[in-house]
Amino acid sequence: KVVFNKDVESELLNLDLYETDAGELEDAFVENDNVLVLVLEDAMDNKKDYELTIDGTEDVDGVYEFTAYDNEIPEVVEVVALGTKAVKVVMSEPIESASTKDFRIDGKAVYGTTEVVGREIVVKTYNSLSVGEHELTIRRLEDYAEFKSVETTREFEVVEDKDAPTIEEVSATLERVVITFNEDIDKASISRYNVYYKNGSTKVYPESVSKIANNKVVAVFGGNNALPVYKTTLYVEDFADYSGNAMDLTEVEVKAIIDESRPEVIKVELQKDLRTIEIKFSKTVNVSDAEDIRN
To answer: What pLDDT is recorded for position 246?
Structure first.
């Protein structure tokens, strides 16, 4: 988490502004107006020191040190039904894994599948839940620091959902488009063919589309498929919620944010073998340039 002394502006959600030795960044979102949360693809090591580099802003550029520290057990924050075929459990922190054996609905075993995205767990049931009140028992779940939660039972209400997802927000760089929906999206409905733009009459699809939050997906347009620098129309379709409601074709105007800042050398270190020099830049650099010994 990065805490600012004022509200976080939307421009600071651009992942190209950040680089960290803690791992690859996957997402960024705002919490409590002035807190920027940066989400990593993989877990950090507990009690280990890391650095975060910010480059490309007017006021907060620099290298910041921080320590990954976790000494608390995970707790259940919220349980909510996602239509009649899924239940979402929100934890106080990310959970390493979960299976249907970790849950019971109305005292009975759950038959279905689970999906863990950050600190949220979606339990999909093979059979529909009846509309009305139910109870979910959550057994001991383990976080990345190997702390386990206390078994908890929470009530939740099932309401039938007949409305398809709609788009709330789209942000884009030349190679990365993040789409935020008004409700959680079923992973089973996600395909790279759900998103495209047109070059003339030709549809240009991303290399991949993946889920970075339950209501948010990222489409990666790499190489020759990068978005144009001018405003273009993005076509989005067939994303569905957990009740099977799929969205119709939706057109959204987007203009990619162009990263105009240059990479800078921020650290040079001689490795333990005394033969290897590690050079750390303020941002990701082109692999072919990095591997060219002439540079």
So the answer is: 96
